[in-house]
Amino acid sequence: MANSSFAVVILAGAVVFTGCVGSTPPAPAQPPGWDDDLRLPSAKDLDPDPGVVELRLEARLAQLPFVATGATTMWTFDGGVPGPLIRARVGNRVIVHFTNQLPEETTIHWHGLRIPAAMDGMPGHSQPPVPQGGSFDYDYVVPDASTFWYHPHMASAKQVGNGLYGAFVVDDPAEPKGLGDEVVMVLSDLALNADGSLQAPDVSGDLATLFGREGDVVLVNGKVRPTLKARPGLRQRWRFINAAKSRYFQLALDGHEFLRIGGDGGLLTAPVPVAQPVLAPGERADLLVVPDGEPGTELVLHWIAYDRGFGTAFNRPPVDLLAVRLEGMRVDTPPLPPIARVIAPLAIDGATEIALELTQNAPGAPFELGINGVPFADAEPLMAHVHETQVWTVTNTVAFAHPFHLHGFFFQVLSPAGPLEWKDTVNVPVDGSARFVVRYDDRPGMWMFHCHILDHAEAGMMGTLMLMEHEP
Ligand code: C2O
Ligand code: CU
Ligand code: CU
């Protein structure tokens, strides 16, 4: 029997069911209802065709109980924060009949999905804004397996900050089995007034925009400190998405280490041990963890302040994100199946060099952020042509770290050094730069890039890339 997942079942089962003769014991399982407190609602697939995922999605206001004393009027997809989990398989056609019932216009951007520019949700370039009461059908094929997410691309600091985001997972049926019992966790935060209402998106003015606004209410799947149950010794797979508009999430689980198996663009070539993974806004992490300890005890997953510049880590105590309650008899950790993803490094010789600076305008003038000194409103698009390879060097000149995101294409980061992987968002550290290589495929059109601290993006740190069909 060469199948390693079969071997896992027998091995782990034997520990629990020793003495059981004659029938195959069931594999050890997580405690009953283990993820009840956390499981995201799933978008309902209206199309019986296994190759097509078709759903309706509505953006609307909804009252949600974030404060004991009342309700908060949130901006939601389908009435929830986060919105429903969309799940598809590689190669599926996804059709989303979107309706906008918000008090203002919006679009949906499918963060990380390599889909045609016309479906990318960039208002004015890929589609007209969807007006209040209007609708738009998104229709595309999903080419890659990974953890993605969706969010509006208009007034995004406000709309995302008010609750509009959801998880989107694309599965690869050929992925190794037995990586762990999966939970998808959307990390976010919320800034509320004392009466429970949402804080205005421009509260505290330009200085707060420059810092990037973080809310005090820190959420995992829309909940404050939810509880996950775990069988001691049994591996879990946690897919994280940082959907916060400014907050970085540095994660620490009492006495435990993680194995990172994937990120923005699917699996790594091999797992990488990491004690305290960091997710900048927009980034995803696919982490394995083996919760272990005495049954009946609790582990806590903490948010740890990450220094993204100028006082952002100063004197900020850890925040409890999630309680992991250990339940049931301990089992021996099943062996991890090999991941063995092949990723070929992109060749950089002959690549066009692109140099960008993330900038703040000179003091004195009205506050603005920009790229190469130019705010988004005045920016000319960068040019590229299909199948071209470019190396981008993005240099930080503003005293805060910036998660730099490119729409529509994965890139490979050359520096800061890290494992070989596909990414769409990379952190540009304070006083530093990030360098990556991207090879465009055949999806011409206008694409965006920006800082994923959405306050920064809205203040001008955003630009466009025109991908031309033909060589110049
Ligand atoms: Cu999540 Cu323009 O991006
Ligand atoms: Cu994006
Ligand atoms: Cu920024």
Write up what this structure looks like:
- There is one protein chain.
- This protein has 472 residues and is mainly beta.
- It has a 6-stranded mixed β-sheet with strand order 10-9-12-17-14-15, with no helix packed on it. Strands 11-19-18-13-16 form a 5-stranded mixed β-sheet, with no helix packed on it. A 5-stranded mixed β-sheet has the order 21-20-23-27-25, with no helix packed on it.
- Residues 1-20 have low confidence and may be disordered.
- It has 4 helices and 29 strands.
- The chain is globular.
- Bound molecules: CU-O-CU linkage and copper (II) ion (2 copies).
Main attributes of the structure:
single chain, 472 residues, mainly beta, six-stranded mixed β-sheet, five-stranded mixed β-sheet, 4 helices, 29 strands, 7% helix, globular, binds copper (II) ion
Layout of helices and strands:
Blueprint: H1 4-16, E1 52-67, E2 70-77, E3 86-89, E4 93-100, E5 108-111, E6 135-141, E7 146-152, H2 156-161, E8 166-171, E9 181-190, H3 205-211, E10 217-220, E11 227-230, E12 236-242, E13 249-253, E14 258-263, E15 266-274, E16 278-279, E17 284-289, E18 298-304, E19 319-326, E20 352-360, E21 369-371, E22 382-385, E23 389-396, E24 402-406, E25 411-415, E26 425-428, E27 433-439, E28 445-451, H4 454-458, E29 462-468
Parallel strand pairs: 1-4, 3-8, 9-12, 11-19, 20-23, 22-29
Antiparallel strand pairs: 1-2, 4-6, 5-7, 7-8, 9-10, 12-17, 13-16, 13-18, 14-15, 14-17, 18-19, 20-21, 23-27, 24-26, 24-28, 25-27, 28-29
The chain binds CU-O-CU linkage (C2O) and copper (II) ion (CU) (2 copies).
